[in-house]
Specification:
The protein has about 375 residues and is mainly alpha-helical. The protein has 12 helices and 6 strands.
Length: about 375
């Protein structure tokens, strides 16, 4: 009877000519970009400079890759150094095999070096990048799907993973997709850290400690389901013991740090606040200088330039000038006519007065 299942890819590598494009490597690279992008946003929101997270990641990422590979090779040395094995395979990172414990440990060392060079406190930086690391792990786990590795016990659940490869001692069949379980768990851890950081204002490395503790809880039960070869101590896989110890250390740090350094760092990067204030002051000054300019100055300049061009309405301007001249001449003629009429009226009044005076003189003469 056919059952629903998660199919495995037919192959984990594509070739672009002679260049191999490996799904495992793509997942790691995408995860790194997500971690740096989100870490930068959180760092700037905390008052840091943009670009600081990427600068420190230049140190942290290579150290993390080396640390993850070293942890895997040391804990599974028989895969590379036992009889019949080729020790050169220990350097083939693209074939899978990165231990998160070693990646976090040496990655933290690289981040500490980068933070020291940048003048940044390591705990504040760790808090900023913690959720991004969780999301990067969630994406990176899909690289195990491309390589058909890290699956759990056999199951017939609808979400069972169908393993088709028989290389490396694999047995084709249907198994628990532990890579998917861990990927979903890491997504939940990332959102948990974001929520807790906003709710409780975590600082001094406590957001990072919460990420570590929450991840260890999920890694414990997921690791218990896996069936790949591993070293056992007192009936538990080595990674289960590692998760338990790291979980206790993270919880202890949360408690002690909250008592010794409550609250959050007021400043995470020296000089960042001054740079922001200077940028705001410069922007305000530019706005003020723009507002102080006489209104229409630019328009006047542009208008003058436009009028200077012969092709931009020269005929219209000449026509307007001629119309103005005609109107002016008409106004002048009307004014002159009014002046003449007023002079004529004055002359008539003067003549009438003279006639009245003559008549009066004649009458007085006759009377005398």
């Amino acid at each position: 009877m056919d059952i629903a299942y998660i199919p495995s890819p037919s192959r984990g590598v594509l070739y672009l000519g002679p260049i191999p494009l490996r799904g495992y490597a793509f997942c790691i690279i995408i995860g790194v970009f997500v971690a740096v992008w989100l870490g930068n946003k959180r760092w700037v929101a905390r008052g840091g400079r943009a670009g600081t997270v990427a600068d420190i990641a230049v140190w942290a990422v290579p150290f993390g890759l080396v640390g993850g590979r070293l942890y895997h090779v040391i804990t599974d040395y028989e895969l590379y150094f036992s009889p019949g094995r080729n020790w050169v395979d220990a350097f083939k990172v693209w074939e899978g095999g990165l231990g998160i414990w070693g990646a976090i440990a040496l990655g933290a060392l690289g981040a500490w070096i980068g933070a020291r060079r940048r003048g940044v406190a390591m705990p504040a930086y760790a808090d900023a990048v913690a959720p991004g690391i969780a999301f990067a792990q969630a994406i990176g786990r899909w690289g195990n799907w491309f390589n058909q590795e890290l699956y759990g016990r056999e199951t017939h659940l609808p979400w069972a993973l169908h393993i088709t490869s028989s290389e490396g001692g694999r047995v084709p069949g249907y198994y628990h997709p532990t890579f998917l379980y861990e990927s979903l768990w890491c997504v939940g851890v990332g959102f948990l850290v974001i929520w807790a950081d906003r709710r409780f204002k975590l600082g001094h490395g406590r957001a990072f400690a919460l990420y570590v503790a929450a991840y260890c809880v999920g890694r414990g039960w997921i690791e218990y389901m896996r069936v790949d070869d591993a070293h056992h101590i007192l009936g538990l896989r080595l990674n289960d013991w590692t998760a338990l110890i790291v979980f206790l250390l993270a919880v202890a740090y949360l408690i002690v740090s909250a008592r010794l350094r409550p609250g959050r760092e007021p400043v995470v990067e020296a000089g960042a606040a001054e740079d922001a204030e200077g940028a705001e002051a410069g922007g305000a000054k530019d706005d003020e200088s723009e507002s102080d300019k006489p209104k229409g100055t630019a328009d006047g300049k542009d208008k003058g330039k436009d009028e200077a061009k012969p092709e931009d309405g020269s005929a219209e301007s000449k026509k307007a000038e001629s119309e103005k001249a005609e109107a002016k001449s008409e106004d002048t003629a009307a004014t002159a006519a009014k002046v003449d009429m007023s002079k004529a009226d004055e002359a008539e009044d003067s003549d009438a007065e003279d006639d009245d005076a003559k008549v009066k003189d004649t009458a007085e003469a006759k009377k005398g």
